[in-house]
Each structure stands twice: as structure tokens, then as C-alpha cells.
Specification:
It is built from six helices and four strands; from the N terminus they run αααααββαββ. The chain is mainly α.
Length: about 190
């Protein structure tokens, strides 16, 4: 993809989610994001407080000044779980918070499910996804993400708990899954 197409892609994505476009591409120049295969460079990559993703030679964002919107632009394209992992892991390393750690887990899970890695690496990616979700529960138990308008918050503890179980992991830290007053599942730490 050339710089002009990157800029146009960025502008289109921004137009869908925001009202302005800048003169600078938000994607790393020359990076082919589609079809990437994940090869973790470090056993803690993407998990707070690791900074390994910043030095990963496979990270297309490692040598760029990734814009705030980039992670969302990549996340919106469901066919780019590996690129989205790198974008969110980059964010965890630069400015850690629960929402970023959740999306690291989410994209590791999506990478695992899509088998977007060497077969021998898939068990480690699954385990890393579980660790990412558990880290949200351990370090940011009240973390939220927002709807497309940025105004409605959604707590992340329950989806983290459910994702760990769905991946065959065991939730630690005393968390349990109960039903709220409307009958929906709710992760709590009594």
C-alpha cells in the first residue's frame, strides 16, 4: 500500500468514527497488515507491564508514532487480529490501562481462533490471551470500554471472565460468575 492509499484509508476510517482527517497517515508506512501471522517475540509480550512489543521486529507499529485512532481503525477490520494485537499491545506498553489490555486479549483470542500463527505457536497464543484477560481482572477490575459514541460504558470484568473460561482457562483471584437482577451473567469478586 502506498502512502496516499494509507492516508485515504485513514481518512475514510476517521470519517466513519470522527469528523476530521489529518495530513499524516496513522498506519506505519509500507506495513502489510492483512495476512499477518503472529510470532510472539517474548513470553510476556502484550501483557502489562512488559515492553517487549516495542522491540518486536514483527510489530508494524514499533517504528511509528501511532495515532490515537489507529488502534480503533485496525480493530474495526475484523480480518486483522494480528495487527490489532500489535496496536493494542503497543498501547499497553506506552500508556497501560484496562481497556487496552482487554483488546490485547480479545485479539490474541481472535488470532488463536483464526489460526493466524504457526500451529506450534497456537498454544502459547491461547495461554497469552488467558493471561491478558486475567491481567484486566487483577490490575483493572473496574475497566470499561465504550460504545461507538464514546458515551456508554461497558464493564469488562464479565467478558474477561467468560473469555478465560471459553479458552479453557481457570479464572483466579476469587472471581465468580453470578446472575444480575435481569438474569444476565456478572463477574464479581466477593
Amino acid at each position: 500500500m502506498n502512502r496516499r492509499r494509507l492516508l485515504l484509508s485513514s481518512c475514510l476510517a476517521l470519517a466513519l468514527g470522527a469528523s476530521a482527517c489529518t495530513n499524516t497517515a496513522t498506519y506505519y508506512d509500507g506495513a502489510a497488515l492483512a495476512g499477518m501471522k503472529l510470532k510472539l517475540s517474548d513470553p510476556d509480550e502484550g501483557i502489562y507491564p512488559s515492553l517487549a512489543v516495542l522491540d518486536d521486529p514483527n510489530n508494524p507499529f514499533a517504528q511509528s508514532a501511532m495515532g490515537d485512532q489507529t488502534k480503533w481503525n485496525v480493530q474495526m477490520n475484523k480480518s486483522l487480529p494480528v495487527a490489532a494485537f500489535y496496536a493494542w499491545a503497543f498501547n499497553v506498553a506506552q500508556a497501560p490501562y484496562g481497556e487496552s489490555q482487554y483488546y490485547v486479549g480479545y485479539n490474541l483470542d481472535a488470532t488463536y481462533m483464526a489460526e493466524a500463527a504457526a500451529v506450534d505457536d497456537l498454544p502459547a497464543i491461547r495461554a497469552q490471551a488467558i493471561r491478558a484477560f486475567q491481567t484486566v481482572l487483577d490490575d483493572w477490575p473496574t475497566a470499561v470500554t465504550y460504545d461507538a459514541t464514546g458515551t456508554i460504558a461497558y464493564p469488562l470484568a464479565t467478558p474477561c471472565y467468560q473469555a478465560i473460561v471459553a479458552l479453557g482457562g481457570t479464572v483466579s483471584g476469587g472471581w465468580v460468575l453470578v446472575q444480575d437482577s435481569t438474569g444476565h451473567p456478572l463477574a464479581v469478586k466477593p
